[in-house]
Design brief:
2 copies of one chain form a homodimer.
Chain A: E1 5-10, H1 16-27, E2 31-32, H2 34-44, H3 48-54, H4 63-68, H5 78-96, E3 99-102, H6 106-109, E4 116-122, H7 125-136, H8 140-162, E5 174-177, H9 178-181, H10 183-194
Parallel strand pairs in A: 1-3, 1-4, 2-3, 4-5
Helix pairs in contact in A: 1-10, 2-5, 7-8
Chain lengths: ~200, ~200
């Protein structure tokens, strides 16, 4: 196959990360997620722990606090710096060849790259809840709360850095409901499209 | 295959109607679009011409005009009546067996039906423009204007009757960019999913 960069955005609990990993395996191409975090940590001077926590949920704070806290004299915050570091890493990774990149606004960062296939994975609440309960040993109420909070943060972060609404079909090549389609079929459709 | 209702929402010029027709052919199941208009015309007492013009673009008028014009003593407008007639027809069609239904908020009308596969087809502006120029003998400027106006009306109509935003990935099983994926591959993916 010709060079293909597959970016995956996903709702929490939709299995998007798993689907991304399996697509990368099926196509025998690199998969980037934690690796991006590690690379960003090395290059930025920020701690890996900070980056893992903040990497996708950057500017979540009150607008008042945001305006005055944690900014340098140019107006850039530590969050903005981290986003900039991650963006450079994603551009560098994409330049190297075919790969799968999960999260981190990669679809937006690479929007001028014609080799990109941008995927959005979402799912139904009952299936997502069951997955989070099982993966993180949560009660149903805790899982629902965590899903809502996490996706709210992802949507906010995406809007902040891209000025686009998260989950709008027009921003992606393909959007799939993994609860209805099944993970296996999602993997098959995405891998087949890349070929 | 078990009973499958495939609803297709689509951007103007994205080839969604053609894709829907070809999916129905591939699966050898009925395709509904103009047929709905004809049925609605028969049952409503409204002219087929009025329905064809208004069927998907109902409440497009100023909010002031909407508040005072064309409503009966219950507050229902002719537009609302037409939507209600079309809804009943769609529910009736879906009860009869597998089919493809294009447009007319069918995804929302059938949202409780577990046999539904809801599809959203969109595309890139250059490809959509070229298609509309060729199909309707328009200049580039005319085609762009027509695409924007038609999709604006569709989005408004969808919002009005469903209270949902048109084109949000989460409302669909599958969303496809037909310019990137190609019509043929879209048809293949949808037909395969229904099987």
């Amino acid at each position: 196959m010709s060079k293909k960069i597959i970016t995956i955005s996903r709702e929490f609990g939709s299995g998007g990360r798993y689907i991304g990993e399996q697509v990368a395996k099926a196509l025998n191409i690199p998969y980037y997620d934690k690796k991006i975090i590690a690379k960003a940590a090395e290059q930025s001077g920020l701690s890996e722990e900070f980056i893992e926590k903040k990497g996708e949920y950057s500017p979540i704070k009150s607008m008042f606090a945001y305006a005055f806290v944690g900014r340098d004299s140019t107006g850039a915050s530590l969050d903005d710096y981290l986003f900039s570091v991650q963006r450079d890493i994603i551009l560098d990774i994409a330049a190297q060849g075919s790969c799968v990149i999960v999260g981190r606004c990669a679809d937006y960062i690479l929007k001028e790259d014609p080799s990109c296939i941008n995927i959005f994975i979402h799912g139904n609440m009952p299936e997502k809840t069951a997955r989070i309960m099982s993966m993180y040993e949560k009660t149903e109420a805790e899982a629902v709360k965590l899903i809502k909070e996490t996706d709210k943060k992802r949507a906010f972060n995406y809007k902040y850095y891209t000025d686009q609404k998260w989950g709008i079909a027009q921003n992606y090549t393909l959007c799939l409901n993994s609860s209805q389609i099944t993970y296996e079929k999602c993997i098959e459709i995405i891998a087949d499209l890349a070929k």
